[in-house]
Amino acid sequence: MRMVSVRLTSIVALLLLAGSSASAQAVQLPFSAQQGDEIAYRFEVEADDGTVIRNFSGTPVFTVTSVKPGQIALNVSQTHLKEEHKFKDPRTRGIIRSLMLGLIPEPRSLTIDERGRVVNQKGGVPLPYALGELALAVIEPRPADAQDSWEQTQQTTLTVSSSMFPRLRIADPTAKHLNAEEQTKFRVTGTTDQETTLERTYSFATIERTDDGPRYELTGKGDVKVSRKDGFVNSFDSRLTMIVRDDNSSDKTNIHLAFVRMTPEELKNYKTLMAAQAADRVAPPSPQERQEILDEIASGEDLRIQKALQKLAPKQPEAPDPELAAAVAKCLKIDRNFVQTAAAQALIHWATSAEAPALIESLANTNSLVANASEEALVALDYEPAIPEIMKRIKSPSSRIPASKALQKFGDRAEVPVHDLFNDEDRSVRMEAARILKEIGTQKSISLLEDRAANDADNTVKFLCKQALEAVKAKVKRST
What we know:
disordered N terminus; 16 strands; two-stranded antiparallel ribbon; 14 helices; 14-stranded antiparallel β-sheet; alpha+beta
């Protein structure tokens, strides 16, 4: 499977089209808003590659955080897209791998001007199939003056990965970067006092070609209905075709991209539903649910066990449940990473002190998800005997940050043990020790920090110890 994602956009041009239909009405569609406004959408992408049908759905909410002359600042929340998939032919058997597996949406915010041009932005929510970024799919720039048609052209870079999963934060050494050209044309097809309808024609193609055409090509057409009141899109419906070509073959995927703006009442009901579902997720299991979870864990079937553990994980026990905790802890011994991960995550809320030894043992698990969740469970237990084992994880770059945060949560009980980290030859370990003491240090650490700030062999360690010393002294002064 080829994975593609638009990673870079540059050289943007907004052009007015001459010679448009005389019957079309020229319109101006500026964006406007008031602080606190919420614009929410039911968002959906459906893709059919002839073998598998995938559906991605979500409900992104755009909240206006501030309004200044010519600028609207927006925060985008609820950006997670749920993925569902099935074989087009129900008789087909096999494994369908998730395209969005492991993707955690970044916090997203942006500021736009009255034309929808991005002034500044932070974060991003990539869409599958090189469809771009979620917020920028909803907000597209418009011309300054009233027009009946216009187009936007830009040069982009398409990143193609041979990996099964997209790599958004970790560089993929197998990735190939292809220059591409993108063009979006808009034409007014109707307008009322409430909204304007635009025909949107889209084309995206790499400059690299095969004998049959661009190596990657995405084309299609659809309708956009824009509110005349505030300029935000009321609805968007577009059907596109993506073609991926090799020298001797090509793959075609039909894509339906659509989103509809929710009414204030729909948004209110949605929030109520989400709150109820969130409360249900964390509510203690009923006696029947509890027994069903125990039965599934005892089934011996890995997928059933994982599903039961995932259902249990977010729930909060009313009181310690030694029987259920012991059953979950046994799953840490099952030689399946996904089961061990689910078990460790469930123990964050459900472990008792009896499970602490098993959790300490799991700190050495080579799967970081298991080790990190086990560490979090030990912190939730406030299990002080785990401090020496957690300190060992400071020495590994891959576990240093979560281990540092865990030690900080133990507070001054971890303070004196952390002093031993300054004996390590690795400067990075000593640097982290200084950072920890900056947060949890007391009078007990002042003399050590004074010594290290003056005498450590590494200048960065000296600097961090000086910072920690100043923070600790200030804290001690405030407490006296």
